[in-house]
Amino acid sequence: MVELSAGRRPGSTRHDGEAGIDVQTGQEPLLEVTDLSLSYGAVQALNGVSFSIHEGELFALVGPNGAGKTSLFNCLSGLERPQRGSIRMGGVEAVGRPPHKVAELGIGRMFQNLALFSNSTVLQNVMTGRHRLMDTGLLGGMLFWGRARRTEIEHRERVEEILDFLDIVHLRNERVGSLPLGLQKRIELARALASEPRLLLLDEPAMGMNVEETEDMARFILDLVQEWGTTVLLIEHDMGMVMDIAHRVMVLNFGQVLAIGRPEEVQEDPDVIAA
Description:
The chain is 34% helix and 22% strand. By secondary structure, the chain is α/β, with parallel strands linked by helices. It has a domain at 10-106 and 197-274: 3-Layer(aba) Sandwich (Rossmann fold).
């Protein structure tokens, strides 16, 4: 499906399959999740989930519907608070922090369902992703002069770079609601990138796309990791895409971890095959 550059096949990842220190560099993980459990009444969405992700890694999360994937993303982004466990981002505990404070730790998220402002332009939509980085204050923003004006220009320049990277800079002034799904997904990705995340959570970015659009999205995600050094945690049902681009894969089933490892290892795991 997607050809990787030489030397960057998923099987050549530097990291082992378990949570902990990078086996070659000795570095602590960027994200470390330990014994995470979340329940909704009698329904156990997550049950003792533990894993880690290292800087610059493309880590995929797969499993059947109802496995707990979105529940895990909700915990990571502060939308849900687990009953037990720890989420450490860059060595800082994230459990108990509201979503905007989690974002300040460097966790960004692209949601499965589009949440764009359909009557606004592409540029305006992506600029909203810079909100957490703007600190000019209410008065300065209203008057739009001096430091507020300079800051706005700097943020716009960064957004233009992101639009150019995703090949949608020519659409900057187009109304989002008039664009096809594949482009809207790219705009959603651009807005997530605009917050300058250290860890980017992508929830089924290729959902609803045709083959060509899926391949384009896969290449953009690869470029994010390889050229920009962004760390990515990806939920995706397209197994061809996952096996082509992921460094490591974690399989969830009924809220429990079935396997963590390189794509070819996970594909051959008997528990994964049975599930």
